[in-house]
Design a protein that fits this description.
Helices cover 33% and strands 22% of the residues. The chain has 472 residues and is of the alpha+beta class. It folds into two domains: 1-31 and 451-462; 32-156 and 209-450, FAD/NAD(P)-binding domain (3-Layer(bba) Sandwich). It binds flavin-adenine dinucleotide.
Length: 472
């Protein structure tokens, strides 16, 4: 349930966005975007150990399918295309190194559901739940099948509610989902406090088969599996230009790929290639990880069970617990998220934004876990999510020749969805979309985001006016 102020602000901004989007043809050209990619200093990447990216592409090569982007979406697509259509020649181009983007920098929560789709339609609700639980199971099966060195757990995650009214609504929602055969639990205030003592939490819903995963270990661990199957992987290879056609030409700094089909697996970076510029924007989220905590320390701060949690506020706070006892924590305030003018994909250090974000995250963690303020922090980082206006992802195929596949805009649920996206694109590419037909985000529309400067102004207005509002 959104509060009235938030709904009004959102409607006004949507109206403004629709009006100002008419200026796209001019303003989109006046302010060209640059691809900026910084190194990944996350705890996830650190726990992979030393990693040497493969050499960049040099010269001209041909491929049946060229995948742009080496995160969950790109790597899972390469894997499942290899399963469904092993005769096709697949090449994967990554600007920096595998898992350098959000897949190797996130909060680690492997969740159910798809953002932007409410649960009012029982049939669709069951379908989405089944799909995302299958996605979670598929990730675990992949790790087991290839014996990948990936730390992961699935002992459940919580959504905590910060008002009695929202906790009651969540209780009723859990009962409704149970009536559909969906096993979502509800913990009342006391029961919750005994297991997960977050200050101010009035109750929580529990998703039992969700958990936490080290995405950098998964994505980088898949490299030898893909290479064995003949996927040619070029890291340190940014795609500078995509020229659509029956044969698509991809220009890179030292080479070119001529491909019959392309996959945009570039999520928050996609606008740099000229696609979906009015559909999604890069939202920076900042995170830190504590040093490993002993069981006693975890218990003392209140974290006695479960792989992770998020709260019920629009500037969502989230945290997860690694198997070596670190708490990865992010979000929770306007300062911990940022939109940077003209879709910048790195946080400008000089502006002090990254530092302010880290201070704000620590304050949010202290709010929920007052005894955690003295815990040593070992890693601090940020990354970009691809966010759509209504938070629904965008999956499908586009272009005059229907040969540009995409799965983008997961809006915070990409750990499960971007891994599932590989199965989706592989099915579509093989000509069988039966599993996905009718899903609202497959070939779905989207609310248009205006060009700059309206985009930046709209973001500032929305975040300042809605502040700590509950999630809509
Ligand atoms: C801080 C943070 C916390 C998050 N927490 C969670 C969470 O707890 N749970 C959850 O479900 N989701 C979370 N997410 C979202 C989730 O991580 C993403 O939705 C998901 O990883 C997207 O995967 P992807 O492969 O589509 O994109 P990415 O992982 O971003 O990969 C895109 C890749 O494309 C490359 N690239 C971009 N442009 C080009 C180009 N022109 N040429 C070549 N390569 C290019 C980039 O270098 C990058 O490696 C979080 C995201 C962030 C940033």
């Amino acid at each position: 349930m959104a509060n009235p102020k938030q709904s009004l602000t959102f409607s006004l901004l949507q109206g403004g966005a629709a009006l100002t989007s008419r200026t796209w043809p001019i303003l989109g050209r006046v302010l060209p975007e640059r691809l900026e990619i910084d190194a990944n200093p996350s705890v996830w990447a650190d726990l992979v150990g030393p990693y040497t990216p493969s050499p960049p592409l040099e010269g001209v090569i041909n491929a049946d399918l060229a995948i742009i982007g080496g995160g969950f979406t790109g790597v899972s697509t390469a894997y499942y295309v290899g399963e469904r259509t092993p005769e096709r020649k697949v090449v994967l181009l990554e600007a920096a190194s595998l898992a350098n983007g959000a897949s190797g920098r996130n909060g680690g929560l492997a969740l159910n559901w798809v953002n932007g789709i409410d649960h009012s339609d029982p049939e669709l609700t069951r379908r989405i739940y089944t799909l995302t639980s299958e996605g979670l199971a598929a990730m675990r099966a992949l790790i087991a099948r290839h014996n990948l060195p990936v730390a992961h757990r699935h002992d459940g995650t919580l959504t905590i509610y910060t008002s009695n009214a929202r906790a009651e609504a969540a209780h009723a929602e859990a009962e409704y989902l149970n009536s559909l055969g969906i096993p979502v639990g509800f913990l009342g205030r006391e029961e919750l406090a005994a297991q997960f003592a977050a200050r101010g939490a009035c109750g929580a819903s529990l998703e039992p088969d969700t958990g936490q995963i080290n995405g950098a270990q998964l994505v980088r661990g898949m490299r030898p599996v893909l290479e064995q199957r003949g996927v040619r992987i070029y890291e340190q290879t940014p795609v500078l230009r995509v020229e659509p056609g029956r044969t698509i030409r991809l220009t890179t700094p030292q080479g070119e790929v001529r491909a019959r089909a392309v996959v945009l697996a570039t999520n928050g970076y996609t606008s740099k290639l000229g696609f979906f510029r009015d559909a999604l924007f890069p939202l920076h989220s900042s995170v830190f990880a504590t040093a490993p905590l002993t069981r006693d320390q975890q218990h003392a701060m209140g974290w006695r069970r479960y792989a992770g949690f998020s709260d019920d506020l629009d500037r969502i706070a989230y945290g997860s617990l690694t198997d070596d006892g670190r708490i990865v924590f992010g979000g929770g305030s306007n300062q911990s998220y940022a939109y940077c003018f003209n879709n910048r994909t790195t946080l400008p250090a000089a502006a002090g934004q990254a530092r302010r974000a880290q201070v704000a995250i620590a304050q949010t963690m202290d709010t929920y876990f007052p005894d955690a303020s003295a815990l040593p922090i070992s890693h601090r980082w940020s990354g970009v999510l691809g966010v759509t206006l209504d938070r629904r992802p965008l999956w499908g195929c586009t272009g005059e020749d229907r040969n540009i596949y995409y799965a983008l805009g997961y809006s915070g649920h990409g750990v499960t969805l971007a891994n599932l996206a590989g199965e989706f694109i592989a099915d579509l590419y093989a000509g069988d979309d039966s599993r996905w037909r009718g899903l609202p985000f497959y070939q779905g529309g989207y609310g248009a985001i205006p060009p700059e400067p309206f985009r930046w102004i709209g973001y500032q207005l929305f975040t300042r006016l809605t502040g700590q509002a509950p999630r809509g």
